[in-house]
Amino acid sequence: MPMTRTFRSFPIHDFDSIKQQMLHWSNQFSVCCFLDNNGYDSPLHTSECLLGAGIQASANIDSGKALAGLGAFMETHHDWIFGHLSYDLKNEIEGLQSSLPDHIGFPDLFFFVPEIVVILDEHQLRIGTFGMDQEYIFESILHQEWVQQETGKQDEKIRQRIDKPAYLQTVQMLREHIQRGDCYEINFCQEFYIPDITIDPVEVFSKLTSLSPNPFSAYYKTGNRYLLCASPERYLRKTGRHIISQPIKGTLHRVLTNIEQDRIQKEKLFLSQKDRSENVMVVDLVRNDLSRVCLEGSVNVDELFGIYSFPQVHQMISTVSGELKQGVTFEDIIRATFPMGSMTGAPKRKVMQLIEQYEKSRRGLFSGAVGYIAPGGDFDFNVVIRSILYNADSRYLSFPTGSAITHYSDPEAEYAECMLKGEAMRRVLEGESEK
After folding, report:
1. Is the separation of the CB atoms in 83 and 374 below 8 Å?
2. pLDDT tens digits, residue range 249-302?
């Protein structure tokens, strides 16, 4: 078997159909990672879809020596590498502990060199393998057939790990921490879950990304654990020595039935002092994180308070960039920046302790990152939000949501924001559970 991956290109004619064929074809593998840009036009995206399927080699490491282990894995395998960083890597990075229950069970860190890499652009499909018949693979994708699995009987409705009165009380307690000076901002999440359900993960992901087609979507499967992700947020992208982060803080619902009202909503979000305060705090945190691995004076805010529209919501997104110091490794970058500030708050270590104290379940892969590392070391990772997590063995399904709590937070408004962020997942699952 050749040690170098080779690619072959194939012309395509039905772009949308090929994308669905790729997704269904990938699901035959025990491990796959399907990353979908969903047609967003941005110079920061390199392809429409990127897929890694099958395992040539893998690194499955629990928190403690995970990042060093990944570094050694990357030194051995100079190839395409796909995988995830769990939020609970915080324990290794910050010397913390977690005792909350983990109902899904993704590893703290998992990365794999795929047997097959598939890259979809507007007019071509590129297939990269280690000596496998690429034309056969192309034909297999092209003619992939699938039958939707029947959804099993579901006796349980969507539950909340924290009910509304307890949520409102907790937000007030977090505001008191802020008033005492313990922290400035804290991302507080609650879990919605179904403890006994059987789903077709591919079908649910297709429905979710059809309803909410966001630019950092991912269908990610490791054995019988699934991430069905419709994230709008980028964690980090590295190109050469240039690195960018695009934190989101600031959310307002859209008015799709009225163009003028929808425009007013965008303006309202842009002018919101609360949302600007949240956003600038996380921007400062990202700038500080990047400054630890970037050349002095190179960290810049390329865009502050940008307003971007997605199917259900308008979001306030800022872009921070820098030039990496010579010799900085992937491990150095992750240690300096993870978990991402938009999912913690500030100061990081203290708010992560408060998150452990006040949340009721372990975040696991939620609030973590999924993405790829390209040959040569460039990479791109999302923030795992707006996601359904599913363990097919235990038939447990979860979709956490959260918001940033500040001194100015109104508990009722924060609760409404969590419900808004969970709307797409709820709609998909309520449809999924129809008898």
Report:
1. no
2. 999 999 999 999 999 999 999 999 999 999 999 999 999 999 999 999 999 999
Q: Please give the CATH superfamily to which domain 6-237+362-432 belongs.
A: Anthranilate synthase (3.60.120.10)
Whether the CB-CB separation of 198 and 332 falls below 8 Å is answered with: no
Alpha helix positions (H), 143-240: 164-179, 201-211
> CB-based contacts of 420: which residues, under 8 Å, 6+ apart?
251, 253, 312, 313
CA separation for the pair 98, 88 (Å, rounded): 8
Lowest model confidence (mean pLDDT) among 101-110, 138-147, 209-218:
138-147
pLDDT over 60 at 92, yes or no: yes
Radius of gyration of the CA atoms of the chain, in A: 21
Predicted pLDDT at 312? 87
Q: Which two tokens stand for residue 161?
A: 């790990």
In this structure, the dihedral spanned by the alpha carbons of residues 266, 267, 268 and 271, taken in order and rounded to 10 degrees, is 130
pLDDT of residue 1: 38
Write down the mean pLDDT value for the chain: 94
Query: Is 386 within 8 Å of 214 (Cβ atoms)?
Result: yes
Question: What ranges do the domains of the chain cover?
Answer: 6-237+362-432
Task: Using DSSP, state whether 243 is helix, strand or coil.
Answer: strand
Range list of H helices, 231-347: 259-271, 273-291, 330-337
Q: How far apart (Å, rounded) are the C-alpha atoms in residues 151 and 331?
A: 41
